[in-house]
Amino acid sequence: MTGASVTVRDHRCSVGRIRCSDGRRPSTTAGHRWLALRVQIHRGHLIHVTGSPTVQESAAHLVAIEDGALVIGDDGRILFSGAYADLPAEYAGVEIDDHRPAFLLPGFVDTHIHFPQTFAGDAYGGGQLLEWLNACIFPSESRLADPEFAERAALEFVRRRTAAGTTAAMVFGSAFPHAQDALFEQTQRAGLRIVSGRGIQTVGPDSAKPLISSEADALRLTKAEIDKWHAADTGDVATALLHVAVVPRFSLSVTTGTLKNLGELYDSVRGNGVYFHSHLNENNRPGTGEVDSVKQSYQVETYLDTYDGKFLPGSQVGGKSFLGRRSIMAHSVHCTDGELARMAETGTSIAHCPVSQQFLGSGTMPWRRTIASGVNVAAGTDFGGGDTWLISEVMSDAFKVHISEPGDAAISMHPAEMLFTATLAGARALDMEDRFGNLDAGKEADFLVVDPAGWGPTAAAIDHGIRSDDPEMARDQTLFALLMTMREPAISQVWVQGRRVVAP
Ligand code: GUN
Ligand code: ZN
């Protein structure tokens, strides 16, 4: 083989096949030059948000090319992204994977989803967040103490997120190390991206007992998970698909001692790309809701203070801050202006989970005010608080709740904002925007083939929906129809780093 010496111009081989430099399939090696490098071309209706805009700028960065092409190099990176008609001549001999009239979208990024709630999406127990946790979720998550059950949950979790086209995710983990091992192993086998960490609880009600560890074990097990799984696949955070996060469940599940210990641990590993993840300002039912409970039990001015090192009474500093550009706070529905400003200043992102917020009566995150603060807002299913695995469906609900906000707060989200939040904002929240999140040349090729033929309501909306005479508005209407109607059966292929994801 002379593959090591060929240039891109010489490529003639396609996925799974090797051809000769003259394009013929050789019957003998004599006289032929073998090419080892593989270049792929995918042809379809390309839609993505290009560049690195803010959410407010995303409409101006929307790219939609009805007859588009993606060329992917053997390193899994996008070599060319654009109109098929503009395909550089050097790729003329490469076999084409023609998906038309299907769409090619960036992979979805779910920035908040609970692995140990894989089988809890139907949890009915009465009450709002805190009652639901006690009655349904703590008992449900405790079942992962059984390694066989945990393995089944990991398999199902990977299957469901693959079906939903979730190529990258911040996954709220199980308390049990064997369950986290199963999750990382199955995720790696499928070829998906993950950031996850065991859910840490050092205090809680009786129903949470099996999930609670001692202060010492909380620290030891979290450190062990980082040592075992952080960038375990490649040994380099810059190329890894597997990453670890420090994940205290929420402030009510830990003590000032836990926050201090974990803060020191996080401070020592944050430079190596370790993440932080928790819940913030989710449910504010007066008196007994989560937000008041946190403020009362810590005697702090704001909920965010507990994650910002200021967890002592009067919001005095007691330890290190967890905030930063690899920190994601789920929900953040009821933030003060000061909390939003602090998140924006530190590069902390919000995982917006409107499906879950409706299910648990948590209210509506004020969209305009939140994005105006400059904080990056990505999307999360929060499954099983939410009852869908599909990030486009989360954005469909986001559209509905934000157009229904009171008075001047109401907003009709632009479809590009919806796509941005579902993809590029997620990559930004994971601090990997330079690697994925859109279909720009140079990025790692994480993309979905979305075929309306797989899901009747989407086919109906795409084929027969009303479209404006204005091409730009018609483009936006098509994207809107896609995001509002698509469900899992429309996602016919899922690709990460230029490799087809195969669910276990
Ligand atoms: N706050 C603390 N734990 C949880 C959880 O499991 N789900 C949600 N939605 N909020 C939480
Ligand atoms: Zn959650």
UniProtKB/TrEMBL annotation:
Q: Where is the Amidohydrolase-related domain?
A: 103-500
Asked whether the UniProt record includes Hydrolase among its keywords, one would answer yes
Which Pfam families does the record cross-reference, listed alphabetically? Amidohydro_1
What's the protein here called? Amidohydrolase family protein
Q: Which UniProt keywords apply?
A: Hydrolase, Metal-binding, Zinc
Please name the Gene3D superfamilies in this protein's record.
Answer: Metal-dependent hydrolases (3.20.20.140), Urease, subunit C, domain 1 (2.30.40.10)
What are the names of the required cofactors? Zn(2+)
Q: What SUPFAM superfamilies has UniProt attached to this entry?
A: Composite domain of metallo-dependent hydrolases, Metallo-dependent hydrolases
Q: Does the keyword Metal-binding apply?
A: yes
Which GO terms of the cellular component aspect does the record hold? cytosol
Tell me the Gene Ontology biological-process terms attached to this UniProt entry: guanine catabolic process
Question: What highest taxon heads this organism's lineage?
Answer: Bacteria
Q: Which GO terms describe its molecular function?
A: guanine deaminase activity; zinc ion binding
